[in-house]
Amino acid sequence: MVRLPTPGHLVRYGQRCTAALYDRVVRVPRCSAPKDVLAILHLSRSGSTVLGSLLAQHPKLYWDGEVFDRRRPRQQLFRRLQGVGDRQDPERIAWLMRYAGERIYVLSAAGFYGRRPEELIAELKGLGCNRFVLLRRDNLLRQRLSFLIADKTARWHLSSTRPPSLTPVTLEEPSKLLAHMGNAQALYRQLTDSIAGRPLLELTYEVDIEVSPSLAYDKVCRFLEIEPLPVKVRYGRMNDYPISELVINYQEVAEAFRGSEFEWMLEE
Q1: Sheet-wide strand order for 200-204
Q2: 100 within 8 A of 29, measured Cβ to Cβ
Q3: Backbone torsions φ then ψ of 82, nearest 5 degrees
Q4: This prediction's pTM
C-alpha cells in the first residue's frame, strides 16, 4: 500500500526544499562547520520524528533528520538539492553541517547502518559531535508492534489532529523476538559506553514523549543551554490500544513471554 502525502506535508516539504536551495547558493559557501553538533541516537519507532519536528521549530537549532538514511525517495531528492546526492561518507555530512550556519546542528542516527556502535560513535565524534542524546523505548514489544503496523499500513506518522485506528498484526516467532529484544538492550549499553566522556542526555519514550513530547523538547533545549520556545506538536500516537487487541496471536506471544524479563511488556 502506498499513501500519498497530505497537502500539509507537501507544503512543508516544498518550503524545506526552497530553503535548502537558497542556503546552497547563498549561505553555505560563506559558512564554516558549526561550533556545536548534537547527535540523537535511537532505534526506529522511538519518537524521534515528533521530537525532531519540535526541535526544527527553534530558531537556534538546525534539525537535519537522519543523515545516514538514503532509502526514502523524498529524502534522496532533498539531499540532491543540498548538493550531496546519495553519498554517505563523512565529507558528505561535514558539508551538510555547514547549512546550520550559526545555529546548533542536530542530526538523527536511527540504527547503525552496518557499523558497530563504537564505530558509529567514533565517526560522529570525528565529525565534531560534542553532545549526544540517547532516546530509547523501554517497551520493546510496543516498539516492534509500531514498526509492523506502520509497515502494514504504509503510514509511518500520524497527525496530532487524527485519531489512531486499530490495525492488528501477527508477531511471527515470538521466541526470536525475545532474542532481538535482548540484543537491543545490549546495543543501548554499548552506545552509552562508547559515548563516555562526552555530555549525554538520556531520554525514554514512555517518560519524555508518550505523555507530552514537549517534555523531551524542553530537556533537549536545556541540555543545549538554550531557552525553550513555544512549539506546535504536529504528530500523535499511532497505536493507542491494548497489546491484546493489537496482536492477533496474543496467546502465543503471552506464553512465549511468560517468565522472561520482558513479560511486563504485555501489561496494558
Answers
A1: 61-66, 104-110, 37-42, 131-136, 200-204
A2: no
A3: -80, -10
A4: 0.85
Query: What is the sign, positive or negative, of the torsion defined by CA atoms of 48, 53, 54, 58?
Result: positive
The sign one gets for the Cα dihedral 249, 145, 121, 88 is positive
**34 with 104: CB under 8 angstroms?**
yes
Q: Which residues of 49-76 are buried (b: 16+ CB within 10 A; e: fewer)?
A: bbbbbbbbebeebbbbbbbbbeeeeeee
Closest to 195 measured CA to CA, from 135, 132, 137, 136: 132
- Return d(Cα 253, Cα 4) in angstroms, integer: 34
Q: Which residue type sits at 223?
A: F
- pLDDT tens digit sequence for 58-116: 999 999 888 876 665 556 666 666 666 655 667 778 878 888 888 999 999 887 767 88
